[in-house]
Specification:
Blueprint lengths: L1 H16 L1 E10 L2 E2 L4 E5 L3 E4 L5 E8 L1 E8 L6 E7 L4 E2 L2 E3 L20 E2 L4 E2 L2 E2 L5 E5 L12 H4 L6 E3 L11 E3 L11 E4 L2 E2 L19 E7 L4 H4 L6 E6 L9 E9 L3 E12 L2 E12 L8 E13 L4 E16 L5 H6 L9 E19 L2 E18 L13 E23 L3 E23 L17 E19 L4 E22 L7 E25 L2 E12 L13 E3 L6 E14 L3 E22 L6 E23 H5 L6 E16 L17 E10 L3 E10 L2 E2 L15 E2 L2 E12 L2 E8 L7 E5 L6 E4 L4 E9 L1
Length: 795
């Protein structure tokens, strides 16, 4: 008996002293729930679910517990359990008290859809009644090593893509008939903060996060301007991965080889150690493309550190580095492209980018219904373009090359407070208020540089011979939105934003004269203005899985002073450019059908006043033709967008381990110039707007393997406001319609994944862009058929 007592004592002691892990996922409806408070009773342990709905408690002694899950707008759930001998996983499904919490992002799972939408409330942001889209990268079978935009954004309706960069070094997308140039018509963000060169003076993005490091991509259309700024296109946010919360170390290594000397090495490490979550990656990429004079090398790195001080307060620091050097083969004339798109008539053009981006973010939860988010960020970056800007139908004249050198030094901070409260018969309404302060500084120099053929980024005589400018800018914004939940089916969301914007230009340029020396002209400009713009949206749910939504929001885009003094004989800029104003209205119906089909059908109207565009004009002496950038007219874009996605295996068997999914993405857009005295462009089609965009795909697979086929059709479009069909210089003219097909496959075995992709499967000869400067000028051919193979190791 004494021995049995001793044995029982030690067994009990070991049970008490053992430490276990309690983890799981919170689901609200059919999707993950963020920000739910988890309490482990009778202890004082507390935590919150993350964006994926995951939660974890570590170092929990054995014994009997209650797990309490609570959130504003949802019914509290309590689960009883006993910890003994092993860790435990508890998944909790919660029910919403009101419709405010019912709009979801699809759960990230191999058997779920790649695309989804944002919830009405995400973190400290409101997306109710807005056209929102989400791409879940974990489920996407595509060529991620090259950031293949055609595949990545295949399910986003109305997106026009510039495809001239086979390595995926730069991204060029535009929505609803807006210029795709370096994502300049979106407010472009990474983890919520700006990443463009200068959000005020030069909103172009030379840095694009590697797709292999992304958790998801969030897109909010025109109405995003109330919360994120004045861009007509809306907001695009690249959400990078965090380290896993259920393991201290996870290592991923992806090695990709492809056509034309392409090689990509992506390596990451992440995990959670006590209260610290970390994630870091390093990427090296190189390639030669299919044309001569087109080699590139890219290095990128990123680190994310998040420390949770308590269940109320966490702090996140991030640093991003990217550098690349690329030789640019230049553009082609129509004649040369039709003869052989592989040729290059420029061998002295180079492009260099250096990017350093730092951020600090604090999250504080005052209570279950009130939370605060503060972020500050700093961009220190630059880009240098070196080469020959003369018309592409003329040979390289030799001698000194033209160089444009930019330096960007920007600071920004943003504070948001979100509060949920009861109103209208106990329904949960949500108030968001915020303030943003931003200071941008662009230094731009242009002049003659090294006469050789290498990547020597130095001005002759040590200073720019064409122009030198400082472009400081300041922005102060205050914004608010409120979801008024009238009942469990209907909500109204009004909002407003106050903006103060100040742009300056200080420097000099040389006026070029034919028969006498050039004249140096000093110039100083300042333009300060303030305004308020408004928006309102509404959402109605006639059934649980069906939503009808609509919104209208004013938009604004300021003139960029640092575009005015670029000396380029292919393009000239009106010195009297005016700010662009307008509004976007859209509405639609979206939902799901019995878990196997999802749909989003919508229409939009985009009014763009004083639109800045390009006219194809002749010089006064009629000796040359060039693009003239000015406020050409008002324009209006009318369109229909649809995305329908279905998994036919779920239709047959909801619990099937296989998936057979298909999607159809269609956009019809009519964009025309109106209210203009310029007869050359009246009622003409707006440039860079294909009237038809159609993408469709089919995917079959299971947990371990997947095969996907995608088809894209883009209709004929124009490159200038006069709708010129052809010009000798190739700067203007049509961009013919094209069809492209992509095939991807992957197989997973234990820690290894082998994947491959054949892009442009049918070897279509096409192009998507005519450039008036770098990296052209002229036609920029897109890649022919290419092959890629990736081996991934994950442990």
């Amino acid at each position: 008996m004494r021995i049995l007592i001793i044995i029982a004592f030690f067994i009990g002691l070991s049970t008490v002293q053992a430490q276990y892990t309690v983890k799981g996922r919170i689901n609200l409806g059919a999707s993950a729930a963020e920000g739910v408070t988890l309490s482990l009773l009778p202890t004082n342990f507390k935590t919150q679910s993350n964006a994926a709905g995951d939660f974890i408690f570590t170092n929990v002694p054995g014994g009997q517990y209650q797990l309490k899950a609570s959130a504003v707008g949802s019914k509290t759930v309590i689960r009883n359990f006993t910890l003994r001998k092993k860790d435990i996983v508890i998944d909790i499904s919660m029910e919403a008290e009101s419709a405010t919490q019912l709009e979801n992002v699809d759960v990230i799972s191999k058997n779920e859809a790649v695309s989804g939408k944002l919830r009405q409330v995400e973190g400290t942001a409101i997306y109710a009644s807005k056209k929102t889209e989400v791409i879940n990268l974990a489920n996407l079978n595509a060529n991620l090593a090259t950031n293949n935009a055609r595949q990545v954004y295949g399910r986003i309706a109305g997106i026009n893509i510039w495809e001239y960069d086979g390595g995926g070094v730069q991204l060029g997308i535009g929505g609803r008939g807006l210029n795709p140039s370096r994502v300049s018509n979106f407010n472009t963000r990474q983890n919520g903060y700006d990443i463009s060169a200068d959000a005020l003076g030069y909103p172009e993005s030379y840095y694009t996060p590697p797709t292999e490091a992304l958790e998801r991509i969030e897109i909010v259309r025109g109405a995003a301007g109330l919360q994120y700024g004045t861009q007509f296109g809306g907001m695009i946010n690249f959400k990078l991965k965090n380290g896993p919360i259920d393991k201290p170390v996870e290592v991923t290594s992806r090695q990709t080889a492809g056509s034309y000397g392409f090689f990509n090495s992506f390596n990451s490490i992440g995990g959670t150690v006590k209260k610290l979550n970390y994630y870091a990656y390093y990427q090296y990429k190189r390639g030669d493309n299919f044309r001569p004079n087109s080699h590139f090398d890219q290095n990128g790195a990123y680190i994310h550190l998040n420390y949770t001080f308590s269940d109320k307060f966490s702090l996140t620091g991030e640093y991003t580095y990217m550098h690349y050097l690329a030789q640019q083969p230049g553009g082609l004339t129509d004649k040369d492209f039709n003869a052989d798109p592989r040729i290059s008539v420029r061998d002295r053009n180079w492009f260099k980018v250096n990017w350093n981006l730092m951020s600090l973010t604090a999250d504080y939860r005052f209570s279950a219904s009130t939370k605060l988010n503060w972020m500050a960020y700093h961009l220190k970056a630059g880009r240098d373009a070196l080469g020959i800007l003369q018309y592409i139908d003329r040979p390289d004249p030799g001698g000194a090359r033209d160089m444009m050198a930019d330096t960007y030094d920007n600071y920004g901070t943003e504070l948001r407070v979100l509060h949920q409260y009861k109103l209208f018969n106990g329904q949960t309404s949500t108030l968001l208020t915020g303030v943003r302060a931003y200071h941008g500084l662009t230094l731009r120099n242009q002049g003659n540089a090294d006469a050789g053929s290498g990547a020597a980024f130095d001005f002759l005589n040590g200073e720019p011979s064409s122009s030198q400018y400082r472009f400081p800018g300041q922005n102060l914004s205050v914004f608010t939105e409120n979801i008024f939940q009238i009942n469990d089916k209907w909500s109204i969301t009004p909002g407003a934003r106050f903006e103060y914007i100040s742009n300056e230009a200080n420097g000099y340029y040389y006026k070029i004269q034919r028969f006498v020396p050039n004249v140096k002209i000093n110039e100083s400009k300042q333009n300060g203005r303030s305004f308020v713009f408004f928006g309102i949206g509404s959402s109605f749910r006639p059934a649980k899985e069906v939503e009808i939504y609509a919104n209208i929001s004013q938009n604004y885009r300021s003139v960029n002073f640092n575009d005015i003094r670029v000396l380029n004989q292919n393009a000239r800029v009106d010195s009297l450019l005016r700010d662009e104003k307008g509004y976007t209205a859209d509405g639609g119906i979206r939902g799901k059908l019995k878990g196997w089909l999802s749909y989003d059908l919508s229409v939009f109207y985009l009014k763009y006043n004083d639109r800045i565009g390009s006219l194809n004009v002749k010089s006064e002496d009629l000796t040359e033709t060039y693009r003239f950038r000015t406020n050409v007219a008002d324009s209006r874009n009318i369109g229909f967008e649809s995305l329908i996605e279905a998994d036919f295996m779920k239709l047959i068997n909801a619990e099937s381990k296989y998936h057979l999914s298909a999607y159809s993405n269609l956009a019809l857009i009519d964009a025309r110039y109106i209210n203009t005295q310029e007869t050359a462009i009246k009622d003409k089609l707006v440039e860079f707007v294909p009237p038809l965009l159609f993408r469709t795909g089919l995917s079959f697979g299971a947990k371990k393997y997947d095969v996907s086929l995608q088809f894209s059709h883009v209709a004929k479009q124009y490159s200038d406001a006069t709708n010129a069909e052809f010009t000798e210089r190739a700067v203007d003219g049509v961009v013919p319609a094209y069809n492209v097909m992509d095939l991807s496959a992957s197989y997973n075995w234990k820690w290894f994944t082998l994947s491959g992709s054949i892009n442009n499967l049918l070897n279509e000869k096409y192009f998507t862009r005519r450039a008036d400067g770098y990296p052209g000028p002229g036609i920029l051919p897109s890649d022919p058929r290419t092959y890629y193979l990736t081996l991934q190791f994950k442990l």
